[in-house]
Specification:
With 136 residues, the protein is α+β, with helices and mostly antiparallel strands. It contains 3 helices and 4 strands; from the N terminus they run ααββαββ. A hairpin with a 4-residue loop joins β3 and β4.
């Protein structure tokens, strides 16, 4: 008859301390991974809002002066309540007035800012351009 020693049977399994330490390490690793994924999700949301704001600003600039006459000054509005826009339109200071009268066109300096409220503060995108419009 063979007899197993008590030492041989002890090494066959894990002790309660070893299991608790393994669970603690697993918990720390999972907490770190959750924090990384949470930060990535927040960054994705910020980048998505910047992309949306830029697309809205480009759209607003492309339609400006087509359906409505060019209006000098500040114009404001919003897109579906989440994004707000502000457009400043003024005649470009470097343009030649004599050429503008002769050609019936005028160069305008346009700055369009699209803003939205984020969790930590207000964020915004600003586009600036020069546009040539016919003067009637």
């Amino acid at each position: 008859m063979t007899r197993q020693s008590s030492r041989g049977s002890r090494s066959a399994g894990f002790t309660l301390i070893e299991v608790l330490v393994a669970f603690a390490v697993l918990g720390l690793v999972l907490a770190a991974l959750l924090q990384v994924f949470s930060a990535e999700l927040k960054q994705h949301h910020i980048v998505a809002n910047y992309a949306t704001a830029t697309a809205l600003a480009e759209s607003k600039l492309s339609e400006f002066g087509i359906s409505d006459p060019v209006q000098v000054g500040e114009i404001r509005g919003d897109f579906d309540g989440e994004f707000r826009w502000q457009m400043n339109v003024e005649p470009y200071a470097g343009s030649d007035e004599a050429v503008a009268r002769e050609q019936s066109v005028r160069l305008y300096h346009i700055v369009l800012k699209v803003a939205w409220d984020a969790a930590d503060n207000e964020r915004s995108v600003a586009l600036e351009t020069l546009r040539l419009f016919r003067v009637e």
